[in-house]
Amino acid sequence: MTILEGTNGPEFVFAANRKDEEETRATARFVTNLLQLAGQNLQNLSSDALEKRVLRMILAFNMSRITEYKDKLDKALGLCLEDHERRQSEDEALKSELQKLREKCNFSVNNIREQEEIKCKSPSCRPLRDCERLINLIHNAQLAMTGIKKAVRTKARGSEFLRSGPWCELKHYLGRWHSYRQAANFIVCAAAAWPLLFQDFKITSLPSSTRISKPIVQSDLTAVAIVQHMEAFEKRISAGWVWIRLSKFNS
Fold it and tell me: What is the pLDDT of residues 11-68, one digit of tens each?
């Protein structure tokens, strides 16, 4: 998304991948409602209360993606707990934090009643409340030097992929979840700092690009085969260099 200076006010121009016309219109309505909520604040909510409303609107719109993030985070936490056990670590505090965070992933957003509650963005909507609790726990873990934060910093950059892989995934999906709260906070702060951006605005959506055929045919070579070819190529170069040096010596 980019913001342009329009004739009568700001123009928000956005594009998204793989969206049909109806999905693009739905996204435009979402952006419009979001900007109106943050900019008008008709109920004179405090900044914290307004941020919570904005966050709920963002979560409700992105629930299908959030469901995937919830499952991926749960899987990453499970793998990290397994890795913690394999290392025979005595850090019980880290284990407890991982387990507590995984418990917060144990909620449903799939049945019809829950879907209707999500659409209404009701304060009593349990899936949205569960999402908020998970996000708040992640947010607090980011602020404090918790065991999870320390573990992610050190283990996610390990040299052994089989060991660092789960921690890299954990870092990635913690960041995904936390970004929703950061986005809500930024929107509310922007509305207070630059109120004109939220007045007399226009929303313009660009159509998604169409897929084009790949110009390069996909290779059937595996990673192992590629490495073997590279090694063989290096040997041929080395052998050729030795032959050149011997030729110069004999001449």
Answer: 999 888 878 888 899 999 999 999 999 999 999 999 999 999 999 999 989 888 888 9
CA dist., res. 186 & res. 58, Å (int): 13
Distance CA 39, CA 188 (A): 8
Return the sign of the alpha-carbon dihedral for residues 111, 113, 119, 122.
negative
Cβ–Cβ contacts within 10 Å for residue 179, how many?
13
Is residue 117 within 8 A of residue 126, CB to CB? The reply is yes
Range of the domain at 72: 2-206
pTM of the model as a whole:
0.75
Q: How far is the C-alpha of 230 from the C-alpha of 226, rounded, in Å? A: 6
H-run or E-run covering 136:
helix 126-143
pLDDT in tens, 78-128: 999 998 888 777 788 889 999 999 999 988 776 545 555 556 556 667 888
The reply to whether 98 falls in a domain is: yes
Domain count, the chain: 1
Q: For residue 178, is it within any domain?
A: yes
Written as one string, the DSSP assignment of 93-156 is HHHHHHHHHHHHT-----SHHHHHHHHHT-TT-HHHHHHHHHHHHHHHHHHTT-HHHHHHHHHT
65 within some domain: yes
Q: Does a structural domain hold residue 217?
A: no
Structure tokens at 229: 């070819």
Radius of gyration, CA atoms only, the chain: 26
